[in-house]
Amino acid sequence: MADDQPITDKERQFHASAVMGVWGLLALFGAYLALTSIAVMDEPGAAKDPKIVIFVISCWALPVFAGLAAVGGYHGVKHARPRIALLTAIPAVVTLLVFASAFGAWWT
Question: For 2, 28, 47, 51, which has the most beta carbons within 10 A of its beta carbon?
């Protein structure tokens, strides 16, 4: 069966690059959000609204943790250590959830 064949180094390199690419794109999107969130904080009364403050903080945390997940995921997949990839992805996923909920609370 094809499933019983061991994974080759070329396949592992491809998977590692794919993991890094996905988290890297999310980090770039987070960097864009972080730069555009500066305009949100310039609005009158924005610094006093906790929904906006949490949104802006998560905008700034997203590229940091997504970049960490990209590097950790690449290293974890390339060296067959899925625990490293998982541990570095957890903060990025939590930040993404906080970002989504803060955006939803701010939007309504």
Answer: 51
Please identify which residue in the block is written with the tokens 């950790």: 72
Asked if 68 contacts 21 with a C-beta cutoff of 8 angstroms, the reply is: no
Q: Which residues are CB-contacts of 78 (< 8 A; sequence separation ≥ 6)?
A: 12, 13, 16
CA distance 14 to 101: 33
Task: Indicate if the pLDDT at residue 1 is higher than 70.
Answer: no
C-alpha dihedral over 83, 14, 9, 88, to 10 degrees? Answer: -20
Q: What is the mean pLDDT of the chain?
A: 83
Q: Which of 83, 61, 58 is nearest to 72 (CA)?
A: 83
pTM: 0.75
